[in-house]
Write a structure and sequence with these properties.
This is Septum site-determining protein MinC. There is one protein chain. This protein folds into 2 domains: 8-86; 100-205, Pectate Lyase C-like. Helices cover 13% and strands 37% of the residues. It contains 2 helices and 15 strands. Strands 5-7-9-11-14-15 form a 6-stranded mixed sheet, with no helix packed on it. A 5-stranded mixed sheet has the order 6-8-10-12-13, with no helix packed on it. Strands 1-2-3-4 form a 4-stranded mixed sheet. α2 (64-75) links the parallel β3 (51-56) and β4. It is elongated, with a radius of gyration of 18 Å.
Length: 212
């Protein structure tokens, strides 16, 4: 008896989750199975800390519209953040994945926490405290001090926090507006990013708009 073929397989990897989309199935079947898994059978992965998702298309070639469908289904669900959508047919691009450093701590006034690569801090950054990284910064707690991502000039870096009340944000050489000008709520996890040379802030659910 032939084994049942699943259009979508989800595997845990070192840096998050790997979504394997079967390239021999019709795209509509893949989209249907992906939706079912996230809405019904795999809801448990949509809670908790941020999970990085890497989508592998096999040898399938997809259009920009089809990639956007995948982003909409995965990237707007809970805590899933799409890092890449890759096909074996894609032209190779030079991209060095920076490591993610996990730190469980409170950064108090006068303290500086710096990492080469991406920083995932589980804890708060108090007023007067500073966190910095050459890559992205994710704060699973309150960011009430200063954060500087993309320190070596990476304007694609982002800063994310569960509670965003910084004294200052900085991405590459671009500095945020004064704290009293931040229109930030208390309910949603938010992230800061660079758009046309200006720092902006949005809900983390919308991160898929800037991260493919």
């Amino acid at each position: 008896m032939a084994a049942v073929k699943h259009p979508v397989r989800i595997k845990g990897v070192k840096d998050g989750l790997l979504f394997l989309l079967d390239d021999s199935c019709p795209f509509e079947s893949v989209i249907g199975d992906l939706t079912t898994k996230l809405e019904k059978t795999h809801q448990n992965i949509l809670t908790g800390p941020i999970i990085h998702v890497f989508v592998k298309l096999g040898k399938r070639t997809v259009s920009d519209e089809e990639k956007e469908q995948i982003r909409e289904i995965i990237g707007t669900r809970g805590n899933l953040l799409i890092q890449s959508i890759e096909s074996e047919n894609d032209i190779p691009q030079e991209k060095a994945e920076e490591p993610i450093h996990l730190v469980k701590s409170i950064v108090r006034s006068g303290q500086v926490l710096h990492m080469e690569g991406n920083l995932l801090l589980i804890g708060d950054v108090n007023p007067g405290g500073t966190v910095s990284a050459t890559g992205d910064i994710y704060v699973m707690g309150s960011l009430r001090g200063m954060a500087h991502a993309g320190m070596e000039g990476n304007e694609k870096a982002i800063i994310t926090a569960s509670h965003m009340k910084p004294t200052q944000l900085r991405i590459a050489q671009i500095i945020s507006r004064p704290p009293d000008e931040w229109a930030i709520g208390d309910t949603y996890m938010e992230f800061a990013y660079i758009n046309n040379g200006v720092m902006e802030i949005d809900k983390v659910q919308h991160m898929s708009r800037i991260r493919p």
